[in-house]
Amino acid sequence: MNYYETLYIVHPALESGRLKDIIISIQSMIESKDIKVLCTDYWGKKKLAYLIDKQQYGSYVLVQLQSSGDNINKINAELEHNPDVLSYLTSRIDESNLIKDSRSLDDQILGSKSSESDKNSNEPVKVESSESASKDEPNDSDGKEESSESASKEASTEKDSETDNDNEELTSEDKDGSDE
Amino acid sequence: MALTNNKKICPFKEDPKLISKINYKDYKFLRKFITEQGKIIPGFVTGVSSKYQRRLTNEIKKARNIALLPYVHDPRN
């Protein structure tokens, strides 16, 4: 018997009550395939790095399982045809990576609702970085100078070198494009 | 993190605690090893040894699959 974990994204339109039903129905589906569910971890609603089915957000749920390798493909087939699941990823894990303290599903869903303000405070950080990146693109040279300046203001020499490398890559690509 | 050109020391050999962070679930840590465009930074730039660079690329690709990291930078977001 091996240990596996499945991370899947539930459609963001589902509210807390409906979300719990979906998670429980998927859990019972897994158990019906002779697979033992060790724990369920609800990550909350997160912004996706790219659109999936035209959705910008999704609720991430992590399930850790104990099963033989044959049964895992059956879960993937079920999740593939579930319209509420935007995407999923199953991977094999070591026993040391199992989550030991598991809260009840209600606590996790309600807790993440109450602490949404914290998560929102985290999310703008990502948005800012992407916004600054998007600002870079329209005004070419100015944006890059700003980004390198801001990086130096943050007192991280690492970022400077990164931006330098990016610029080098960009220029080399531009040259390639012009040659072609 | 040894990202400078003159001194390349593998960050994972320097601090073995970081090895456990090479996981697609820790996508905020993996962001250090991709460019703004979303490309994976090669090991000879970051100084990561080939053993851990292989693991990094696998985990970054997993994180991309489940939309935790971008395949390419999307200016609309």
CATH C-level of chain B = Few Secondary Structures
Helix content of chain B: 25-40%
Share in β-strands of chain B: under 5%
- By helix and strand content of chain B, what is the structural category? mainly alpha
Instruction: Kindly provide the radius of gyration of chain A, computed on alpha-carbon positions and rounded to a whole number of angstroms.
Output: 21 Å
User: Class by helix and strand content of chain A?
Assistant: alpha+beta
**What is the CATH architecture term of chain B?**
Irregular
What portion of the residues of chain A fall into strands of 2 or more residues? 25-35%
- Could you describe the largest sheet of chain B, including whether it forms a barrel? none
Distance between the termini of chain A: 54 Å
Give the CATH H-level superfamily of the largest domain in chain A: Ribosomal protein S6/Translation elongation factor EF1B
Any idea what the shape of chain A is?
A: globular
Calculate Rg of chain B over CA atoms.
12 Å
Text of the CATH class of the largest domain in chain A = Alpha Beta
Number of domains of chain B: 1
Number of strands of chain A: 4
Contiguous uncertain segments of 5+ residues of chain A: 116-180
Distance between the termini of chain B: 28 Å
Structure description:
Chain A has 180 residues and is an alpha+beta fold. Chain A has two domains: 2-114, Alpha-Beta Plaits, CATH 3.30.70; 122-179, no CATH class. Chain A contains six helices and four strands. In chain A, strand 2 and strand 3 form a beta hairpin. The longest helix of chain A has 23 residues, at 157-179. The relative contact order of chain A is 0.14. Mean pLDDT of chain A is 71; it is low at 116-180. With 77 residues, chain B is an all-alpha fold. Chain B has a single domain (11-65), classed as 30s Ribosomal Protein S18, CATH 4.10.640.10. Chain B is built from four helices and no strands. Chain B is globular. The mean pLDDT of chain B is 89. Chain A binds chain B through residues 7, 9, 47-50, 52, 56, 58, 62, 87-89, 91, 97, 127, 129-130, 133-134, 136-137, 157-158, 161-162, 165-166, 169, and chain B through 1, 3-5, 23-25, 35-37, 39, 41, 45, 62, 64-71, 73-77.
